[in-house]
Design brief:
single chain, about 200 residues
Length: about 200
């Protein structure tokens, strides 16, 4: 009986050391050595200060910025501690209200834009944290952003193209644009490019 208890206790100590100490330290060390940016949350900094993560969206409402997808997290949008979708079905009146409210906000911010609104601008993602929009969703907003910043539309469109990430390995997924990175790129445009006001 004592031998069984001793062996069980030694196994507990061994596997606690292996899986609770050695393995986590090895994986953490490897991650910090090989890809520290991703291992530390893909934090984006500006002027030496963290301003967000490339993996979690942020809410932008000012017309001079590109807007991301809706977020259904509570108690505030893009809450990383409460990741979830709205779980509202296509016939749910609450979903239709949210979609109509976003359509109204987009049309109000750019009343002359008669393009069809891409679906990802009026619906939430499954996680509620999606930091990306489709290139079509970015294109829809080009005129509004250019006008608000006094930029040429071609300048803003070129920036969108530059920030568009293609399919992984050229075949998986769809092209996307990281909204936070795109808005940072806008802020970093040389001031001389913002002199001409778009009518």
């Amino acid at each position: 009986m004592f031998a069984i208890i001793r062996n069980a206790f030694m196994s507990l100590l061994l596997f606690t050391a292996l899986t609770g100490i050695i393995y986590p330290l090895a994986v953490t060390g490897l991650a910090q050595t090989v890809f520290p940016y991703k291992a530390n949350g893909s934090i984006i900094t500006r002027d030496g200060k963290p301003i967000g993560s490339a993996l979690i969206g942020q809410q932008f409402e000012d017309p001079k910025y590109f807007w991301g997808r809706l977020s259904a997290t509570t108690p505030y949008p893009y809450n990383g501690g409460a990741s979830s979708g709205s779980n509202l079905g296509p016939n749910n009146p609450e979903l239709m209200k949210a979609v109509q409210a976003r359509i109204h906000a987009l049309r109000t911010a750019d009343p002359t834009n008669q393009q069809k609104i891409p679906v990802d601008l009026v619906t939430a993602s499954g996680s509620g944290l999606d930091p990306h929009i489709s290139p079509a969703a970015a294109e829809y907003q080009v005129r509004r952003v250019a006008k608000a910043r006094g930029l040429e539309e071609t300048t803003v469109r070129a920036l969108v193209a530059k920030e568009t990430q293609g399919r992984w390995l050229g075949i998986l997924g769809e092209p996307v644009v990281n909204v936070l990175k795109l808005n940072i790129a806008l802020e970093e445009l040389p001031k001389k490019k913002t002199m001409r006001v778009v009518p």
